[in-house]
Queue: 2 jobs
Job 1
Amino acid sequence: MIRAVYPGSFDPITNGHIYIAERASSLFDELCVAVLHNPQKRATFSVDERQAMAREATSHLPNVRIKSFEGLLVDFMRKEQSRIIIRGLRALSDFEYEFQLALMNRQLAPEIETLFIVTDAQYSYLSSRAIKEVFHFGGSVQGMVPPGVFRRLRERFPPKNSFRE
Ligand code: PNS
């Protein structure tokens, strides 16, 4: 049984994240989407909300489980008995940060491997931060987030004008 872990802030999960989860879940027996709970950093959505959105958005993938973690990712990996970290890559600009993260994790836990899955071109410009900003200022985020996330964005940032779909 090979279990991979796809960690992230997922604040909120986007269609780009879902694409990576779909591809990763087809490669392994089980994929654990691990939502970071970082009490030092204020997220837009609580860890429970982020987990709920991720759960709804991946309900079509039977081998995906959603969990949260606090502290070091490598400690969570060991607890989950997984040696595979999945990360998505959008553009070259992601690489420096991801390279640092992967090497730090390898230093901490040499038995764990980080595998990168390249996003689809249609999602290459998406980020949770940009989506929240666009939504907040009334822009359309159609095709960027799943329906459950759209609903929660609307609750969090009530509409200011009619341009938003
Ligand atoms: O979606 P993100 O914010 O790019 O995900 C980053 C994440 C959660 C993978 C990373 O910040 C993380 O693993 N944090 C847990 C703390 C940790 O293990 N740090 C050591 C590596 S620098």
Note: The chain has a mean pLDDT of 95.
Job 2
Amino acid sequence: MKRTPLVAGNWKMNGGQSLVASMATALAEYQGVADVVVCPPFPYLASAREQLPAAIGLGAQNVSDQAEGAFTGEVAASMLAEAGCGYVIIGHSERRALYAESDAQIADKFAQVQAAGLIPVLCVGETLAEREAGNTDAVVCGQLQAVVDAVGVAAFARAVVAYEPVWAIGTGEEASPEIAQEVHAALKRAARKEIDTVALRVLYGGSVNADNANALMRMPDVDGVLVGGASLEALGFRQLCAQVAGSV
Ligand code: PEP
């Protein structure tokens, strides 16, 4: 049986106070069974927490790999907890590619997030070249394993993994449900190989919208979705959440 699905909206560096307000209004009427998490940029976290219904989770898009101190411009996990976050996206492919985040740094961030009592959403995903070379499973399981090696697989009982093929992010070309299923199953197998008591919760991300969410959610190992572009319009996002909720 599937667990409660999760929909997380990653605004990236978009939105503002008006989107916070319209999202709060739209989600006030959301009654579905799916867990919903909204991830605005740092400056909007506190006001989003104030305005969103209590049942809607709040997430940050990044965090420091350090606990506190002289790290100008960084934001600690404990600060995100104080701002009302319950989740933090880490290892997004944009951060890996544009800010050269390494697996080791991502593992440190994962540990910081959990030490603050928050849930990491660890993103993994292959590039098109890696897929075409037949290396998808090796790449995504390698990204997972780097964190498992650092923190232990048991930590994933309080974490979420998001499979986000780089070629599907922001391109309008989502992975087929079959591809998503195949990779999610490989990730879950990899975790079970380490310890079979941890049931990994794996989201799919990459050009998800209200039209394709249902087909993805029908796959047995797709436990929810991480949504970029389609999380930037409040009513559309609520519709997407309702689609996902209706899929269980
Ligand atoms: C993302 O960047 O996490 C993402 C899934 O983006 P999009 O839905 O726009 O492809």
Note: The chain is about 40% helix and 15% strand.
